[in-house]
Design a protein that fits this description.
Helices cover 22% and strands 29% of the residues. With 281 residues, it is α/β, with parallel strands linked by helices. The protein has a single domain, classed as Nitrilase/N-carbamoyl-D-aminoacid amidohydrolase (4-Layer Sandwich), CATH 3.60.110.10. Strands 5-4-3-2-1-14 form a 6-stranded mixed sheet. It is globular and about 50 Å long.
């Protein structure tokens, strides 16, 4: 096992109406993460470049979607290259006419897009994401600065299968861009996802008021043992960072070898088509 260490940072922020101002704010926090924490990889919240418009059913908001070649990701690529830092930036992505995704872009320190993850579970509980987005279908693993990163996004976290799929694909770090209001079991869920998969787990949430929603903040970085390394409160914008390593992943998985002891041959019920599930009727 060749150990790798790097500094991972999460940004917590509120987004206003003006896209360019939001991108500039993100850039400001990226600079703080670099100057104050010497960050190597920085995670931005979900939809950091726009307010959370998916609380309303109004198709005018589709105009906020951007291609990978649009102004937001192009600027993030420039920032990554000029600062020599890797970024994970999540936007409302326009893939083609009428096809949209909630997409996290992995951008390396040379400003190259190394991969992208499209949210598998668009939310339809309090929000209306399902009328805007198509769901993604893959759990890519991307090498950034020598560690294997995966992503899930916001509502995905409450489906344990998503983090597990990402872990068994080889992720050592799972980053989680969020745009979520207060969730009562938040801390316990984040600790559990890290612990049960033996991964570094890093939710970066929005905070403050956008439209009719108040976002919950509480961004954190959780160790593979399930212990919280760093966290923010539910009020203020800010940056957290910590040193992460491959050796911590190895140590956690040796002590608690859940991935070794999995029994996928017995898990067919969770892959059974919905209409065929015997729910005890």
């Amino acid at each position: 096992m060749r150990d790798v260490e790097l500094t991972l940072a999460c940004v917590q922020m509120t987004s206003g109406e003006n896209r360019d101002s939001n991108v500039q704010k993100a850039e400001h926090y990226i600079d703080i993460a670099i100057k104050e924490h010497n960050a190597d990889v920085i995670v931005l919240p979900e939809f950091f470049n726009i307010p959370y418009v998916f609380q309303w059913r109004d198709y005018k908001h589709i105009d906020r979607a951007e291609h990978a070649s649009g102004p937001t990701i192009c600027r993030m690529r420039e920032v990554a290259k000029s600062r020599k830092v890797a970024l994970i930036a999540t936007i409302f992505e326009e893939d083609s006419a009428g096809i949209y995704y909630d997409t996290a872009f992995f951008i390396d320190e040379e400003g190259e897009i190394r991969g992208k993850y499209r949210k598998v579970h668009p939310a339809a509980v309090q929000s209306l994401e399902k009328i805007y987005f198509r769901y993604g279908s893959h759990y890519p693993i991307v090498n950034l600065r020598g560690l294997r990163f995966g992503a899930i996004i916001c509502y995905d976290t409450f489906f344990p299968e998503t983090a597990r799929c990402t872990a068994v694909q080889g992720a050592e770090v799972i980053i989680v861009p969020f745009a979520a209001p207060k969730v009562d079991p938040w801390r316990a869920v984040m600790m559990t996802r890290a612990f049960e998969n033996g991964v570094w787990f890093a939710p970066a949430n929005k905070v403050g008021i956008e439209g009719e929603w108040t976002f919950g903040g509480r961004s954190m970085i959780v160790e593979p043992t399930g212990e919280v390394a760093e966290e923010l409160d539910d009020v203020a914008e800010g940056v957290i960072a910590t040193r992460i390593s491959r050796s911590a992943v190895y140590g956690a998985r040796r002590e608690k070898p859940m991935l070794r002891d999995r029994r996928p041959d017995l898990y067919s019920p969770i892959c059974t088509p919905t209409e065929d599930v015997n729910s005890g009727k």
